[in-house]
Amino acid sequence: MAKKKKMGGSKGKAKEAKSSRKAPQSFFKEFELSSELSEIVGKTKATMQEVIKNVWKYIKDKGLQVKREINADEKLKKLFGKDKITMFELPKIIKQNLKK
């Protein structure tokens, strides 16, 4: 009788690789925020994680997201520099408003 080999030996390696992945250090580093960004977040210093979380909370609470677009109110217009942005532009804009 021939023994059957178990397939899927690579699954264990894939799980190991996923679990060893870590967030970038800048995510937990505290930054000084620009005046426009601190109006939205409510702090003058915060980590990247807190900033992103609070900006999205502000957008959702005000109902400013329409599918992939974010419509700017008065506070966000100061931050964005325009009336609308896509959700993919948001991280770039946030990074530009952080000081080390």
What's this, in brief?
With 100 residues, this protein is of the alpha+beta class. The protein is built from five helices and six strands; from the N terminus they run αβαβαββαβαβ.
Secondary structure topology:
Elements: H1 10-19, E1 30-33, H2 35-41, E2 45-47, H3 48-62, E3 65-66, E4 69-71, H4 74-80, E5 84-86, H5 90-96, E6 98-99
Helix pairs in contact: 2-4
Notes on the protein architecture:
With 100 residues, the protein is α+β, with helices and mostly antiparallel strands. It has one domain: SWIB/MDM2 domain (MDM2), CATH 1.10.245. 46% of the residues lie in helices and 17% in strands. The chain contains five helices and six strands. The protein has a three-stranded antiparallel beta sheet. Strands 3-4-5 form a three-stranded antiparallel beta sheet. Helix 2 crosses helix 4. The chain is elongated. The mean pLDDT is 86.
Notable characteristics:
MDM2; single chain; three-stranded antiparallel β-sheet; alpha+beta
- Main beta sheet, described? 3 strands, antiparallel
Average pLDDT, to the nearest integer?
86
Order of helices and strands: HEHEHEEHEHE
Distance between the termini: 67 Å
Which parts are unreliable, with pLDDT below 50 for 5 consecutive residues or more? none
The CATH architecture category equals: Orthogonal Bundle
**Could you please say which CATH topology applies here?**
MDM2
> Strand portion, in percent?
15-25%
Judged by helices, strands and strand pairing, the structural class is: alpha+beta
User: Residue share in helices?
Assistant: 40-55%
Number of helices: 5
Can you list the strand order of the major beta sheet?
2-1-6
Number of structurally distinct domains:
1
**How many E-type strands?**
6
**CATH homologous superfamily annotation:** SWIB/MDM2 domain
CATH class: Mainly Alpha
What Rg, in angstroms, do the CA atoms define? 21 Å
Shape: elongated
